[in-house]
């Protein structure tokens, strides 16, 4: 592999994927909308070439993809823009792969699975989404599979990590280092999983580098499941201050949704906070290797340190 295009290179997962690729000596084209942000992150990395562009502009994407072997699609948009933009973005990523005879690797979530069955979900479970967003994700998957490109799709649980700015767990952790009362979204008694973005990036790059991984879906679970209350205890031990937050429940999100489009669209996904999906990584470990699994205490420590640094610089 000579050159990889990472779409969404300034996002929480895209940024970690670029870092993981270049740590392995692989040349990367980092693509995102904001040139200043790209320069800020990557100007000192000699293996990264930055390309500023818009995923909705096919020429921008095609120009960035020239000469690449693999295209990694880690772009996401706010919930309220999914129907309008995600299909265009996916079609442009597919077109760029076709034009360059490149492989396409997609960072995906768990929405298309629908409700869990209280067991760890394997890749061969039929997807039966019951939400609008889950159905969109399944449609996008079908678009990829019907395109004839060489693809792989990796399903991840909720993210957290040093640069996962829009992740729900980061929302809580950021409020811990800020001056306001900490806030946590969801039921703190429910066992859920959150994947540390550097772990997710390592697993993703391992898949990208494996010829056998293409033409398949892959589940990438977190280190383990954890409750919100356990997270609060970890935060207290790391910060020496009360980590117990205000609990943001479904009713509160519905109220916020009256004035905020993203929160209004998030309501239908709140079932994941009461009936969480937990992914089974058996296939990955059997066919690719050991999954990276950073313990929550270490991951939260690193995330808090990064958030403190961001808070200090702002």
TrEMBL record:
Identify the taxonomic lineage of the organism of origin: Bacteria, Bacillati, Bacillota, Bacilli, Bacillales
Q: Gene Ontology cellular component?
A: cytoplasm
Q: Which organism is it from?
A: Gracilibacillus ureilyticus
Alphabetical list of InterPro entries matching this protein: NAD(P)-bd_dom (IPR016040), NAD(P)-bd_dom_sf (IPR036291), NAD(P)-dependent_oxidoreduct (IPR051783)
Q: Which domain of life is it from?
A: Bacteria
One Pfam family here: NAD_binding_10
**The protein's name:** Nucleoside-diphosphate-sugar epimerase
Domain named NAD(P)-binding: residues: 8-157
Q: List the molecular function annotations (GO) for this entry.
A: aldehyde dehydrogenase (NAD+) activity
């Amino acid at each position: 592999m000579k050159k990889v295009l990472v779409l969404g290179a300034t996002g929480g997962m895209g940024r970690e994927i670029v870092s993981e690729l270049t740590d392995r000596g692989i040349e990367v084209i980092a693509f995102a909308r904001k040139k200043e942000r790209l320069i800020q992150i990557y100007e000192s990395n000699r293996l990264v070439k930055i390309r500023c562009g818009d995923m909705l502009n096919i020429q921008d994407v095609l120009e960035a993809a020239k000469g690449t072997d693999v295209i990694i699609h880690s772009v996401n948009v706010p919930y309220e823009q999914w129907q309008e933009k995600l299909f265009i973005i996916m079609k442009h990523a597919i077109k760029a792969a076709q034009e360059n005879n490149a492989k396409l690797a997609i960072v995906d979530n768990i929405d298309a699975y629908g409700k869990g069955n209280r067991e760890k979900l394997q890749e061969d479970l039929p997807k039966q989404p019951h939400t609008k967003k889950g159905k969109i994700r399944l449609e996008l998957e079908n678009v990829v599979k019907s395109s004839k490109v060489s693809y792989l799709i990796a399903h991840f649980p909720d993210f957290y990590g040093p640069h996962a700015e829009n992740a729900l767990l980061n929302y809580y952790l950021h409020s811990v280092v800020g001056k306001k009362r900490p806030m946590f979204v969801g039921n703190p008694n429910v066992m859920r999983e959150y994947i540390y973005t550097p772990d997710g990036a390592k697993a993703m790059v391992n898949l990208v580098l494996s010829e056998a991984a293409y033409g398949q879906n892959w589940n990438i679970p977190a280190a383990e499941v954890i409750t919100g209350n356990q997270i609060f205890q970890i935060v207290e031990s790391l910060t020496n201050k009360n980590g117990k937050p205000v609990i943001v429940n479904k009713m509160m999100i519905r109220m916020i949704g009256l004035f905020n489009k993203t929160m209004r669209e998030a309501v239908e996904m709140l079932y994941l906070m009461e009936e969480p999906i937990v992914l089974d990584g058996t296939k990955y470990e059997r066919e690719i290797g050991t999954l990276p699994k950073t313990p929550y205490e270490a991951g939260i420590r690193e995330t808090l340190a990064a958030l403190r640094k961001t808070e200090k610089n702002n």
